[in-house]
Amino acid sequence: MDNLPKCGANYVSLTPLTFLTRASKCYANRTSIIYGNVRFTWRQTYERCCRVASSLRSLNIVKNDVVSVLAPNVPAIYEMHFAVPMTGAVLNTINTRLDAKNIAIILKHSEAKVFFVDFEYLEIAKKALELIATSKMTRIPLVVVIDDIDSPTGIRLGELEYEQLVHQGNPSYVPKEITDEWDPITLNYTSGTTSEPKGVVYSHRGAFLSTLSLLLGWEMGTEPVYLWSLPMFHCNGWTFTWGVAARGGTNICIRNTTTKEMYTNIVLHNVTHMCCAPIVFNILLEAKPHEYSKPITTRVQILTGGAPPPSPLLEKIEKLGFHVVHAYGLTEATGPALLCEWQEKWNELPSENQAKLKSRQGVSILTLADVDVKNIDNMLSVPRDGKSIGEVCLRGSSIMKGYYKNNKANYEVFKNGWFFTGDVGVIHQDGYLEIKDRSKDVIISGGENISSIEVENVIMKHKNVVEASVVAMPHPKWGESPCAFVILTKNSQIKEVDIIGHCRSNLPGFMVPKKVKFVEELPKTGTGKVQKNHLRTIAKTFVVVSEKSNHQKSKNTSPVNREKPRYYEQILALSRL
């Protein structure tokens, strides 16, 4: 049987571009995109993508060239997920929350030839281009403005504009054939919470298989109505930029992830699916009656990732009509790598127990060949007891090709046939994995490992807490001890001693925070992750007081001052670095 050769009929390189081709034929007249008053069908979307690809070729974009885009979730950035790789080029979606310095770093490192910029981001794009112009880099990328397709502004930076490229392009353009599925399709930069962002390269094969795995794992049926509450710049929208096309669904594009915009579109278009970080839950929970005219009548499936959502938060969001599935992933794994697959027997459990199970990260998507939690000292698997901690390791087709122009970083994460995530977790007896922390976020107090996530979950159970983040602070006796930064509900009269007492009632003594600081906001990356390295810098300035002193102080403690504390400006300043 070894003498049976591959041929064009039985071996075709895997690429998500085939999803759009199929959608244009099988779902030609279905609505593909809705953005305000703008609507397209799948036939029209395919044609528009061909036109953009044709125009890019006329601008001398060829195989492996990088095309960057800085834009919110508008039709143009969705179309570019197909149009750019149709030329053989590589799409680089840039985090819209980055400052000019980091945008310039990405443009220089990626050597982008064309830079698409939404009109709202022209000022910061100009600053980034000025930084490039004053550096040793001689070539500045060609700029194309993306004007608002629903309400054009006429704002320009140079002569080129996105809809102009669509108009001038050839609708009969024949996409470049992908002959090697290992070719790069996108270049995504990590959020850079601890260092300069690293360029993560995805292959056509990895993007194709990851998309299928998530569609199956999330059980997304045909004709989904998908709300783009997750930025498309984040791991290419966790591959659902391609996935919605594969299912012949409708993309509901929104420029801003606000309470009003989300609820309005959910009700108006009967949204069935959406993805988001847990931070969006708080936006949804803050809804005011006047912000949407009708209640949600259909069950909305939410796939959430990032920091594990506290079980109290899960309980609240599900009462509004949302069904939450928790995932775990990272940029290097092409988005979600694990899904908390729900078991029917769990439906009989109390809601609090269900919420705890849903906060687990679950089992691997089908793309992965294996997932394990290992003792990195000897590479042995930890016992499946839900207690033994190790580093989460992955291997499979959804793992990135590697970091672009960064062999040192590749050497650090690819070892012994595994990808080392840097996350610490446990595996339960049923095989479900649960993340306990980032390895750098584990607090070691008197030789005991403390999961900051576990402490955060307990704090979040307090009815007056909106958000919490726990980091290590110096301790004269134990080396380190937990320190909590907490956002309270409006008009709350809670004191520091109340949060500490709440923790003491629900945690072992060594895990109880020795310091609680109330803040108005937590510094976050563009993808909603708390920048704990900034909080640790602040925590290093705190002094531990004895429990006795703390108890005596609590007798005369006045209600918490809701004004921003003096160190708050330090936090914001650090978050901008």
Automatic annotation (TrEMBL):
Keyword set, alphabetical order: Ligase, Phenylpropanoid metabolism
Pathway assigned to this chain's UniProt record: Phytoalexin biosynthesis; 3,4',5-trihydroxystilbene biosynthesis; 3,4',5-trihydroxystilbene from trans-4-coumarate: step 1/2
Gene3D superfamilies registered for this protein in UniProt: 3.30.300.30, N-terminal domain of ligase-like
GO molecular function, a single term: (E)-caffeate-CoA ligase activity
Biological process per Gene Ontology, one example term: phenylpropanoid metabolic process
Lineage of the organism: Eukaryota, Viridiplantae, Streptophyta, Embryophyta, Tracheophyta
InterPro entries xrefs: AMP-bd_C, AMP-bd_C_sf, AMP-binding_CS, AMP-dep_synth/lig_dom, ANL_N_sf
Coiled-coil portions: none
Annotated ranges, domain AMP-dependent synthetase/ligase: 22-404
AMP-binding enzyme C-terminal domain location: 454-529
Xref: PANTHER family: ACYL-ACTIVATING ENZYME (PTHR43859), BUTYRATE--COA LIGASE AAE11, PEROXISOMAL (PTHR43859:SF2)
Protein name: 4-coumarate--CoA ligase
Family: Belongs to the ATP-dependent AMP-binding enzyme family.
SUPFAM superfamilies: Acetyl-CoA synthetase-like
Claim: Chaperone is one of the keywords in the record: no
Record flagged with keyword Secreted: no
